Amino acid sequence: MGQNLKYFIENYKSLRNVTLCYLYDKTKNKVLIAMKKRGFGVGKLNGIGGKVEKDETITDALIRETKEEIGVDLKDFEKVAVINFYFKNNPSDKNFNQKAHVFMAYKWENEPVETEEMAPQWIDVNSLPLDKMWSDDKYWLPGIISGKKYIASFLFNDDNSIAEMDLREVKNL
Predict the structure, then answer these.
(1) Residue 26 lies in a domain
(2) Domain of 27?
(3) How many domains does the chain have?
(4) Which of 82, 62, 81 lies closest to 73, judged by CA?
(5) Alpha-helix runs per DSSP H in the chain
(6) Is residue 172 part of a domain?
(7) Alpha helical stretches, state H, 42-98
(8) Average pLDDT over residues 37-55
(9) Over the stretch 95-128, which tens digit does the pLDDT of each residue have?
């Protein structure tokens, strides 16, 4: 772990909790990713999720965000990663530094639909469009699809490239 990332981890302990969910259809070997249509990360492909509201559990936020963003009711899901994201020049009026609670969903009700927030699409797990996703995804997304679990921290430069990272595989979360 580099000195800059170590500094952020030691000095930014109060991260905003967010959720991130990937629907996984094992029978078709496809994962659902969506293009962010507005707000933070606009234009990037990503999982489904968002901020944990006051007095809301991580699980409640996961279920609510998935319903709001793609119209899906989650029925079976598993926490597969906790990833801290730090941004070198985080604007003081926006808290982009965040702790993402990442889930894989295996059962749900309703078909995913496009909303004002997200445009979902099914992608073959062997053809992930990593060049259209956040630069950190290539280090952990293929692993969680194959059943691994991670605890990680990423520090981003101003251009959203990775300045430093710490990625650790774990047995349980």
Answers:
(1) yes
(2) 3-163
(3) 1
(4) 62
(5) 3-11, 58-70, 137-145
(6) no
(7) 58-70
(8) 91
(9) 678 999 999 999 999 999 999 999 999 999 999 9
Q: Which residue has the tokens 């496809």?
A: 30
- Give the chain's length: 173
Inside any domain, residue 57: yes
The pLDDT, as a whole number, for residue 95 is 67
Question: What are the Cα distances from residue 83, in Å, to 78, 102, 121?
Answer: 15, 8, 23
pTM of this structure: 0.93
Q: Do the Cβ atoms of 155 and 134 come closer than 8 Å?
A: no
pLDDT band at 90; cut points 50, 70, 90 = low
The amino acid sitting at 166 is D
In the chain, the N- to C-terminal Cα span, in Å, equals 21
What CATH number is given to the structural domain containing 75? 3.90.79.10
Q: Torsion over CA of 37, 96, 132 and 107, rounded to 10 degrees?
A: -70
